[in-house]
């Protein structure tokens, strides 16, 4: 998940928490307000019924009920139970029929109006006293309108919450997109900068903010990289000329010396040594220069479309010239049905050098035993597997084989400089690929290269 989406999601979650808490508060406050108002209305009616029950002049009793009927009206499903203090049997019957908690009656004993709510029904209990007489009034009713109002409020809050979440997430995405627009612009510009156009720079947005500081920091880094690459480029170019010239002269002089007739044997041996070591030094120098060149501009050669199977055939041809007696076999049985998965965008010369180094290493360290090359593809990469039956690589050293000049501990009897595999690894990485190595000592090694097809 991108940082932009994370910010939009966090903003939505925080807003949802705040809106949800506010909605719950509004619902609880409205519920308590509506239920409190209804309890009060029910208590007023219970008080009128209680005073009517205590009225000794029965002719005046109707006055209470007339007042209640004309000025207050009946509540939905309103019902009153009057218990005189001497009628314990009636009290027991009413208690058993209402199934109210004991705490409800305890409040009434302390002359405190009791309230209780269950299954949409509101209950109130009051003790009404007049002189030495008192009655217990238990009243029930259903707040039909209040419950409907609370249901409407709940639906309104839920709908408002969902609508607000839609707008919060939408505006959060727009807000985060606006915030990250300069960063995306920087990323797009940085992706377009490589070793071929290190002179390009990011354009600051003109404001003194963190984005402007980031652009300036990138530009400073690019200044340092450009200087470093120019120094390396100049060194490689100059070294290629300055080193090859004297080596060619030394090799030529050694050959001239060998052609002089009548030389003593010790002089001939010295010329042979000079010639052999100059050739060895020239090969080492060329390998080092190739390794250095892959670090900055790919020999300045343009990349092109190429087929991986045709490239491997070229590699086999090159290996045949160097080791005519090799046992390298190419297996085409796993080629993908879609030819597009075999087409790469790369530098043919460099890739040929990379695979040639791996195959030649497999031949050398297996004492020219069979080497199998398999070409296949998955949904992302063209894959080349190179398997030998050689000496293998010790487990503790397998992570170091791509370090320049490193040679495994079991390769003493084989000539080499530890440059071929690092060079191949650099070339594969230049092409946005990767190399996996699987090896067992005295059983063999399998190199699996992955190169993204076009």
Automatic annotation (TrEMBL):
<protein>
    <recommendedName>
        <fullName>histidine kinase</fullName>
        <ecNumber>2.7.13.3</ecNumber>
    </recommendedName>
</protein>
<keyword id="KW-0597">Phosphoprotein</keyword>
<dbReference type="InterPro" id="IPR036890">
    <property type="entry name" value="HATPase_C_sf"/>
</dbReference>
<dbReference type="InterPro" id="IPR003660">
    <property type="entry name" value="HAMP_dom"/>
</dbReference>
<dbReference type="GO" id="GO:0005886">
    <property type="term" value="C:plasma membrane"/>
</dbReference>
<dbReference type="Pfam" id="PF00512">
    <property type="entry name" value="HisKA"/>
</dbReference>
<keyword id="KW-0418">Kinase</keyword>
<dbReference type="InterPro" id="IPR005467">
    <property type="entry name" value="His_kinase_dom"/>
</dbReference>
<feature type="transmembrane region" description="Helical">
    <location>
        <begin position="7"/>
        <end position="30"/>
    </location>
</feature>
<dbReference type="InterPro" id="IPR050398">
    <property type="entry name" value="HssS/ArlS-like"/>
</dbReference>
<keyword id="KW-1003">Cell membrane</keyword>
<dbReference type="GO" id="GO:0005524">
    <property type="term" value="F:ATP binding"/>
</dbReference>
<dbReference type="InterPro" id="IPR003594">
    <property type="entry name" value="HATPase_dom"/>
</dbReference>
<feature type="domain" description="HAMP">
    <location>
        <begin position="177"/>
        <end position="230"/>
    </location>
</feature>
<dbReference type="Pfam" id="PF02518">
    <property type="entry name" value="HATPase_c"/>
</dbReference>
<keyword id="KW-0472">Membrane</keyword>
<feature type="domain" description="Histidine kinase">
    <location>
        <begin position="238"/>
        <end position="454"/>
    </location>
</feature>
<keyword id="KW-0067">ATP-binding</keyword>
<keyword id="KW-0812">Transmembrane</keyword>
<feature type="transmembrane region" description="Helical">
    <location>
        <begin position="156"/>
        <end position="175"/>
    </location>
</feature>
<dbReference type="InterPro" id="IPR003661">
    <property type="entry name" value="HisK_dim/P_dom"/>
</dbReference>
<dbReference type="InterPro" id="IPR036097">
    <property type="entry name" value="HisK_dim/P_sf"/>
</dbReference>
<dbReference type="Pfam" id="PF00672">
    <property type="entry name" value="HAMP"/>
</dbReference>
<keyword id="KW-1133">Transmembrane helix</keyword>
<dbReference type="GO" id="GO:0000155">
    <property type="term" value="F:phosphorelay sensor kinase activity"/>
</dbReference>
<keyword id="KW-0547">Nucleotide-binding</keyword>
<dbReference type="InterPro" id="IPR004358">
    <property type="entry name" value="Sig_transdc_His_kin-like_C"/>
</dbReference>
<keyword id="KW-0902">Two-component regulatory system</keyword>
<keyword id="KW-0808">Transferase</keyword>
């Amino acid at each position: 998940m991108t940082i932009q989406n994370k910010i939009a999601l966090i903003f939505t979650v925080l807003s949802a928490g705040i809106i949800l808490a506010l909605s719950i508060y509004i619902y609880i406050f409205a519920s308590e307000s509506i239920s409190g108002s209804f309890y009060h209305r029910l208590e007023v009616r219970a008080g009128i019924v209680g005073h009517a029950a205590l009225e000794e002049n029965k002719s005046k009793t109707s006055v209470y009920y007339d007042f209640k009927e004309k000025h207050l009206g009946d509540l939905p499903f309103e019902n009153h139970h009057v218990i005189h203090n001497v009628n314990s049997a009636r009290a027991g019957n009413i208690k058993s029929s209402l199934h109210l908690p004991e705490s409800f009656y305890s409040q009434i004993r302390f002359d405190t109006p009791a309230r209780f709510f269950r299954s949409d029904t509101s209950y109130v209990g009051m003790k009404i006293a007049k002189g030495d007489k008192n009655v217990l009034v238990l009243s029930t009713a259903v707040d039909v309108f209040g419950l409907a109002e609370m249901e409407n409020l709940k639906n309104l809050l839920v709908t408002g919450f969902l609508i607000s979440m839609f707008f919060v997430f939408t505006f959060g995405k727009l807000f985060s997109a606006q915030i990250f627009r300069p960063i995306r612009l920087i990323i797009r510009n940085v992706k377009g900068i490589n070793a071929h156009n290190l002179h390009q720079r990011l354009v600051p947005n003109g404001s003194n903010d963190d984005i402007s500081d980031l652009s300036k920091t990138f530009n400073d880094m690019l200044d340092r990289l450009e200087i470093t690459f120019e120094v390396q480029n100049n060194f490689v170019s100059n070294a290629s000329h300055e080193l090859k010239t004297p080596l060619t002269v030394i090799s030529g002089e050694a050959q001239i010396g060998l052609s002089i007739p009548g030389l003593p044997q010790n002089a001939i041996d010295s010329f042979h040594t000079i010639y052999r070591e100059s050739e060895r030094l020239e090969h080492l120098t060329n390998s080092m220069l190739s390794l250095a060149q892959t670090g900055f501009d790919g020999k300045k050669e343009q990349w092109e479309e190429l087929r991986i199977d045709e490239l491997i055939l070229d590699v086999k041809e090159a290996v045949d010239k160097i080791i005519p007696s090799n046992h390298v076999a190419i297996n085409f049985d796993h080629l993908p049905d879609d030819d597009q998965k075999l087409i790469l965008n790369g530098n043919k010369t460099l890739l040929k050098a990379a695979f040639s180094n791996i195959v030649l290493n497999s031949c050398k360290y297996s004492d020219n035993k069979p080497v199998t090359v398999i070409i296949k593809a998955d949904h992302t990469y063209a894959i080349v597997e190179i398997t030998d039956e050689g000496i293998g690589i010790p487990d503790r050293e397998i992570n170091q084989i791509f370090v320049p000049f490193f040679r495994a501990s079991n390769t003493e009897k084989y000539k080499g400089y530890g440059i071929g595999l690092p060079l191949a690894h650099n070339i594969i990485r230049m092409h946005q690929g990767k190399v996996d190595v699987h090896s067992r000592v005295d059983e063999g090694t399998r190199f699996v290269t992955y190169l993204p097809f076009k």
